[in-house]
Amino acid sequence: MKKKSLSFKTSRELREGTYLKLEVMPVRCVIGWEEVQYDGLPETVKSIYQK
Description:
The chain is built from 1 helix and 2 strands, in the order ββα. By secondary structure, it is mainly β. The protein has a domain at 17-51. The model has no long low-confidence stretch (mean pLDDT 82).
C-alpha cells in the first residue's frame, strides 16, 4: 500500500477514539470527511489498524 500525506482544515474537533473517513479526488484533494468508529472503517483499512 502506498502511503500519502495530506492536510486540511476544519473548525470541528475529533472525538476521542474515532477515525477520519476521507473522500478524496485527485485534483481537488479532500472533498468530504466524516468521523467513524473502528467498525465503520473499510476492511482494507481495518487490516492495517489493529483495534
